[in-house]
Amino acid sequence: MNKSSDRPSLTRLDLAELETFLWVVREGSFSVAARKLHISQPAVTNRVKRLEDKLRVKLLVRTTRRVEPTEDGIILRDAAEQAVSGLRDALGRFQAVSEIERNRIIVAVTPMLSATVMPQLIHAYCQRYPDLRIVLRDLPYEQVVRSVAEGQADIGVTALDGAPRGLRFQSLAEEKMLLVVPARHPLADAEAVTLDMIIPYPLMLLDRYVALRDRLSQEYGQRGGDFSPSTASTLPTLLGMIDAGNCITFLPRSMAQNNARRTRTTVLVQDLNASRRYCSVVARKADLSSAVKNFQTFLRQNFKSKLEELA
Length: 311
Hints:
- By secondary structure, this protein is α/β, with parallel strands linked by helices.
- The chain has helices at residues 15-27, 30-37, 41-55, 71-102, 111-115, 117-128, 141-149, 195-198, 210-222, 235-243, 253-258, 290-310; strands spanning 60-62, 67-69, 104-109, 133-138, 155-159, 167-182, 204-206, 230-232, 249-252, 264-267, 275-283.
- Helix 1 (15-27) packs across helix 3 (41-55), helix 2 crosses helix 3 (41-55) and helix 6 (117-128) packs across helix 12.
- It is rod-shaped, with a radius of gyration of 34 Å.
- The termini are far apart.
């Protein structure tokens, strides 16, 4: 009779039965194994009996004092101990990784906020919850939105333009936009500045200020002005252009004040009601951990006051 060369299948083995068998061998008793496993003694007996039936061998014998493994039982014990030990190690690693993941929050933040408001907030939060680790990722606006939507970051913090699809947002603060001009600019010493007064001067805006650009285009059009601003991708470039006397711009109050220097001045434009809205954003369908929810609540409670400290 030809025997199959295939390796024996493990699908018929039950892990609970194997573990129960090991407990009986280790303790030398069905009743003690039952107490250790928090099940009844008949349940222990039935598990071992089912295992013996599947393997078609006798695994245990009862002596006068204790239960002992047979020769087949010793073979199974040695193999099962090694397998179960390896499985426990793997499960332990998985659990450790899971604990790390639960205690880690990845936050995607636009550059200005990641350099000003967020470091202080993160420091304060981690002092309150020292077991928590917050990973800050400094990204352009589009990448903040994308990384949150695609699950690469747990939460994003940004000045929000519109309502991006696939995201839920919570408002954190709103602040007015101020005109920033070179220190020797004609508007620097004006007691009151209006939109009509800024139309003649070259304007440069950060390219991500889409809502502001649309608003100014409308205002310039109503006044018969030509709205053709240049744009800058980064704040240092924009500030450098201002310091060289090449343009004027609009910035949120905290950004304008935090970057104030002798070479530039901030001015309130009286007839422009424009502001930047800062929000925390999460994926619409995300199942947020308690750590992310708590951090989101902390931001809602503390972001505005921290922002005002900078202004």
